[in-house]
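Bumping my old thread because nobody answered last time. Still need a sequence for this structure:
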C-alpha cells in the first residue's frame, strides 16, 4: 500500500473510514514510521483543538504559552498573518495553522485540502501558503450522492475551487464531471450579473478531488462573483444538485499590485508593441500587452494576400491567411538574472509560465496578449527585456506529388529550416456520434501524413491549400506536433497531418501550396522597460 494522503489519515483519526479501509490503514501504519509520526501529530492536534474549544475563556498568557510550545521550530517558520483569521474559528485555530503549516506539509493538506497538493499549480499553492484558501464546505445531496465544494482560492486574477463527489457513506468517488453540457452546468456572474465565461476544470485518477477554475484575467473591477451549479446527472443517476456559492473578492484584490505601462511602445521589424499593464496578484503575475503590424507593414502584407487570392481566383474558397504577430521576451531582476522567459514558438520557455492567451482584434496582425507566471517571492524590482518579434506572412512555396507511389517513393522537401517527408496520402474515414435518427456520421477526408525535423529558430508553417490537375482548390486543415526530442541532425522531431475536404476521388497528382509562414526576427540590444512604480 502506498502512503495514504493526509485526508485519508485525517479520516482514520476521526473514525470515518470503512472497516476494510481501516484494516488496510492499520496494516500500513504498523510498518511505516513516517505515517506514524504524522498520525501522532494529527491525534495530538485533534486533542489540542478539542481541549481548547472546551475552554470558555482564554487566559491572558495563552498566546505566549502556545508560542513557547512552538520553540523547537525555527522562529522564522511561525508566520502571523491577520488575513488567516477568516479561515480560523478561534485564536487557537489561527495559531495552529500558522505554526504547523510550515513544519508539517502533510498537515497543510488538511488545511488547504487539494490546494496544498501538487494537483494544482505552484501559484495556487503559494496563495494557499499565504492564507488565501477559504474552507467553505458547502454541499447538496440527492439520490444518495453528495456534491461538495470544499475550498476556494480567489484573488483578482482567478477563482479556483475544489470539489468532491461522495456516496451515501461519505466515501469520495471519481471526481469526473462533464462540464459544461446540458445535464451539468456551472455559471459564474459578477456583482452586476455579467457572465464570467472563461473557466477550466480537471481531476486526477489518484486524487479524490476535482478542480474548477474561473479566470478573471480579461475582466476589470470584479468585486464579487456567484458560482452556480445546476447538475442533473451524476454518476449515472438523475437528480437535482443545485448550489450557489458567493465569493467576495474585495479583501484579496487589495493584495494585487498593478503597474500601468500604457506609455511604453516600440517598433521592430514591422511589428509594433504596446505594453498595457503588469499585475502581481497572490496566485499569478501577469503581463498584458498588444502586438500589431505597423501601418507600412500592414499595407505590404495586404497587397501580397490580394495577389495570392487573384492567383487562385475561381478555384474554390480561398482560406483565411494567418497574419498574427507576437513577441519573445524575458523579465529579469535587479541582478539581471532571468526570472521569467517567454518565446511563443521556440522549444519551450522557463518553467514559471502558467498560461498565455492571445486574441485577434480588428486589424490584421493586431493581437491582445495576457501572459501569466508563477508569483515571485523576491520583491526586488524587475525589468522587461524584448528578445525578438514573430510575424506571420504570406508564403510562396508549392510541392507536387503522386499519392499512389508515395509508399515506394516518399517525397521530401525543405522550407526555411523545416525538413519533412510526405509518407502517405489517401482517403480516410472518420466516424462521429451525433444526436439524430442516424447517430453515426461518416466523414471522408484526404489525409496527408508527413514527418521529419525542425531546426531551432526555423519558420513555423501556417495555412495550406491543395489543388488537383484541373485546378480545383480544396481547403486544408493542419495539425501536428514538434517534440523536444532531436534526431541525428540535431533537429526537433516534427509530425504534420493535413486533411483536405471535398475530394470525391484521389487524383493522380496533387499540389500542396503553403500560404503563410511565421518567421522570427531577433532584436539586438533589446528594448527594456522597468516594471515598477
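Sorry it took so long. Here it is:
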Amino acid at each position: 500500500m502506498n502512503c495514504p494522503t493526509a485526508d485519508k489519515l485525517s479520516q482514520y483519526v476521526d473514525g470515518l473510514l470503512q472497516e476494510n479501509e481501516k484494516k488496510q490503514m492499520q496494516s500500513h501504519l504498523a510498518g511505516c514510521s513516517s505515517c506514524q509520526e504524522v498520525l501522532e501529530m494529527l491525534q495530538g492536534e485533534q486533542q489540542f483543538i478539542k481541549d481548547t474549544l472546551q475552554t470558555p475563556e482564554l487566559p491572558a498568557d495563552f498566546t505566549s504559552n502556545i508560542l513557547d510550545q512552538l520553540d523547537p521550530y525555527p522562529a522564522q517558520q511561525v508566520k502571523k498573518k491577520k488575513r488567516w483569521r477568516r479561515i480560523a474559528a478561534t485564536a487557537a485555530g489561527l495559531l495552529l495553522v500558522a505554526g504547523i503549516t510550515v513544519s508539517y506539509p502533510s498537515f497543510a493538506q488538511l488545511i488547504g485540502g487539494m490546494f496544498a497538493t501538487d494537483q494544482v499549480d505552484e501559484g495556487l499553492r503559494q496563495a494557499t501558503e499565504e492564507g488565501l484558501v477559504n474552507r467553505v464546505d458547502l454541499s447538496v445531496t440527492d439520490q444518495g450522492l453528495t456534491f461538495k465544494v470544499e475550498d476556494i482560492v480567489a484573488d483578482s486574477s482567478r477563482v479556483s475551487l475544489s470539489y468532491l463527489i461522495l456516496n451515501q457513506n461519505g466515501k469520495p468517488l471519481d471526481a469526473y464531471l462533464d462540464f459544461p453540457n446540458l445535464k451539468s452546468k456551472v455559471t459564474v456572474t459578477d456583482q452586476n450579473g455579467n457572465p464570467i465565461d472563461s473557466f477550466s476544470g480537471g481531476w486526477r485518477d489518484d486524487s479524490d478531488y476535482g478542480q474548477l477554475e474561473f479566470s478573471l484575467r480579461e475582466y476589470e473591477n470584479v468585486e464579487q462573483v456567484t458560482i452556480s451549479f445546476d447538475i442533473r446527472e451524476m454518476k449515472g443517476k438523475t437528480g437535482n444538485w443545485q448550489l450557489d456559492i458567493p465569493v467576495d473578492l474585495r479583501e484579496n484584490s487589495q493584495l494585487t499590485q498593478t503597474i500601468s505601462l500604457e506609455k511604453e511602445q516600440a517598433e521592430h521589424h514591422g511589428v509594433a508593441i504596446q505594453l498595457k499593464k503588469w499585475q502581481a496578484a497572490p496566485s499569478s503575475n501577469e503581463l498584458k500587452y498588444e502586438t500589431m503590424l505597423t501601418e507600412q507593414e500592414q499595407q505590404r502584407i495586404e497587397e501580397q494576400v490580394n495577389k495570392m487570392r487573384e492567383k487562385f481566383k475561381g478555384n474554390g474558397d480561398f482560406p483565411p491567411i494567418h497574419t498574427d504577430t507576437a513577441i519573445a521576451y524575458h523579465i529579469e531582476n535587479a541582478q539581471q538574472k532571468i526570472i521569467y522567459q517567454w518565446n511563443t514558438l521556440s522549444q519551450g520557455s522557463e518553467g514559471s509560465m502558467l498560461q498565455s492567451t492571445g486574441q485577434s482584434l480588428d486589424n490584421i496582425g493586431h493581437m491582445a496578449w495576457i501572459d501569466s507566471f508563477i508569483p515571485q517571492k523576491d520583491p526586488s524590482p524587475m525589468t522587461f527585456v524584448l528578445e525578438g518579434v514573430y510575424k506571420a506572412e504570406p508564403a510562396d512555396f508549392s510541392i507536387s506529388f503522386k499519392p499512389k507511389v508515395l509508399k515506394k517513393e516518399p517525397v521530401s522537401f525543405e522550407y526555411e529550416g523545416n525538413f519533412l517527408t510526405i509518407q502517405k496520402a489517401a482517403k480516410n474515414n472518420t466516424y462521429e456520434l451525433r444526436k439524430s435518427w442516424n447517430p453515426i456520421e461518416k466523414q471522408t477526408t484526404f489525409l496527408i501524413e508527413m514527418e521529419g525535423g525542425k531546426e531551432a529558430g526555423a519558420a513555423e508553417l501556417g495555412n495550406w491549400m491543395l489543388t488537383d490537375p484541373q485546378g480545383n482548390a480544396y481547403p486544408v486543415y493542419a495539425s501536428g506536433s514538434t517534440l523536444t526530442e532531436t534526431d541525428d541532425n540535431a533537429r526537433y522531431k516534427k509530425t504534420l497531418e493535413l486533411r483536405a475536404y471535398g475530394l470525391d476521388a484521389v487524383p493522380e497528382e496533387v499540389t500542396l501550396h503553403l500560404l503563410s509562414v511565421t518567421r522570427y526576427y531577433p532584436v539586438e540590444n533589446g528594448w527594456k522597460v522597468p516594471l515598477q512604480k
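The first strand starts at residue 133 and ends at 142. Let me know if any region looks off to you.
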